[in-house]
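hi! just following up on the protien thing from before. the input was this:
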Amino acid sequence: MNARLTHVPLVVSDQDRALEFYTAKVGFEKRADRKGPTGARWVTVAPKGSDVEFALIVGKQRTRVEGDQDPKAGTAGLQVALSSTDCRADYEAMKARGVRFDIPGYETPQRAPWGTSAYFRDPDGNAWAIVQQSWIGKMMVKAFARKK
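and the predicted 3d structure came back as:
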């Protein structure tokens, strides 16, 4: 199969609130906002320059991060990861625009041998990671890719 990823559903409770959060606070751009053939609203956002769009779908499901319950458990839950060239600067800019970095034990950027990461949630509790790989992290990814 010759396929490429184009859209990822992101469950939200209010499309207008989510659209405002992702464009004004996270810094994504709005790609679509229209009614579909059934009358349902189709709203998508994406990081500037990204081929993949996030469809803001009204529903109740959300991503979960294990650190929500126990800070010692880490962030081994489900989250969407965004690649960054400067995680700390992105963290500071997003925090200044009102993004809450409040996952217990991960309120500030975390440094590890593989890189630096910061974790936040949208108003519906969907978890996100901002990840800046170190040179060791880049080497690890290349090594894992060769083992396939």
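The helical segments are 15-26, 87-96, 135-146.
The chain has two domains: 7-58, 66-146.
cheers
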